[in-house]
Amino acid sequence: xxxxxxxxxxxxxxxxxxxxxxxxxxxxxxxxxxxxxxxxxxxxxxxxxxxxxxxxxxxxxxxxxxxxxxxxxxxxxxxxxxxxxxxxxxxxxxxxxxxxxxxxxxxxxxxxxxxxxxxxxxxxxxxxxxxxxxxxxxxxxxxxxxxxxxxxxxxxxxxxxxxxxxxxxxxxxxxxxxxxxxxxxxxxxxxxxxxxxxxxxxxxxxxxxxxxxxxxxxxxxx
Length: 222
What we know:
The protein is of the alpha/beta class. The chain is built from 7 helices and 6 strands, in the order αβββαβαβαβααα. It has helices at 13-26, 84-88, 105-113, 135-146, 162-174, 179-190, 196-204, and strands at 28-29, 67-70, 73-76, 94-97, 117-120, 153-156. A 6-stranded mixed sheet has the order 1-5-4-6-3-2.
């Protein structure tokens, strides 16, 4: 996956290059990613629904573990070509990809042809007891989720269980869900693969730095 970045000339070039290199280690994108210092929370324009001809719905196959998280936010496992027709009905603006592996060429072409921006946060998928969830990466990914300019957005990893579950769980904490509800949702997707380390990470995740941000989507307590 190629990185496409732009720099401004004659403005602390050396310092800017260092900052860009550090940011690229956390998030790689197919297209230029807008900075998230100022987050625009105004709702995106309403998109017209896709008209599905009779019989075409038989070809609309959602990715593994697909579900709606909130208004304009979805989650799933890794989408392949069989899921592309279904993804088109979501009118996605962006995708948050949490695996370190590059996308297959078919996915890249699909995203480009549909104007979908990809935010690539490469989190290794180790098994317990060697799980290491990078908090800084989750924070950067959460900023992307909160910026409604990126909506509708799909969050996914390989199976839509652990990495995706941790990011969604941190969002739920910001939405003031109680921990038991956060864990219930995580376990519903992880099932027998639920990890104590993931739940411990969500429990200790500090959302105080995000609380000044307004949210245009639902924020109900559970």
